[in-house]
Amino acid sequence: MTITLITGANKGLGYESARRLTAEGHTVYLGARDLEKGQSAAAQLGARPVQIDVTDDASIQAAMAEIDEREGRLDVLVNNAGIWDNLDGADELTATMAFDQFDTNATGVVRTTQAALALLRRSDNPVVVNVSSGLGSFAMVTDPASHQFGVHSIVYSATKAAVDMLTVRYAQAVPDIKFNAVDPGFLATDLHGNSSAQDPAIGAEVVARMAIIDRDGPTGTFQCQDGELAW
Length: 231
Description:
Layout: E1 3-6, H1 12-23, E2 27-32, H2 35-45, E3 48-51, H3 57-71, E4 76-79, H4 95-120, E5 127-131, H5 138-141, H6 154-173, E6 178-182, H7 200-211, E7 221-224, E8 227-228
Parallel strand pairs: 1-2, 1-4, 2-3, 4-5, 5-6, 6-7
Antiparallel strand pairs: 7-8
Helix pairs in contact: 1-7, 3-4, 4-6
């Protein structure tokens, strides 16, 4: 049985990723800041709720201790939790907004990954999937033909570029664990409130694809629904 932890999984992309991986036979720990919401979501999917706030070290350590006690290892970590300032430009941006986004989107990946390393190293096939965005791709945001070129979310883009670099450097520094970043696409989730975007279930496909790679699977790559992306 594959043991999987997904952060920020009580709704949106995380929830659909939990649904998809539960269907693959994974034992999914559905991470949520609000345990009551996590319990409700997990009950719908047949997953296991766990309280985890990626900005809180004590919360992360407690979640890992719970998984350790119940499972003794972790096979897959999906760093999905994230926030967005919903600003398309610079005029209203503040340093506090920037700090909060980096703390969740980038530093949260480091906190959670560092806490999970010992459990992941007990797995026969340890995998980390970092949920990034095309908005973090220098290639895409500098291409006038791309959708990302016209979305001027300054700090969110910077946090996801940081996630990309973290993915590459972790893959190099920890070769016994496979690290990959994914761009799930522009999704209709509470993250940005756009109901006209794609169904989160579509984005969950690339998360699941990279979560179920075998021992010969890639590491240090950036993937989307159609294949590998340029950084």
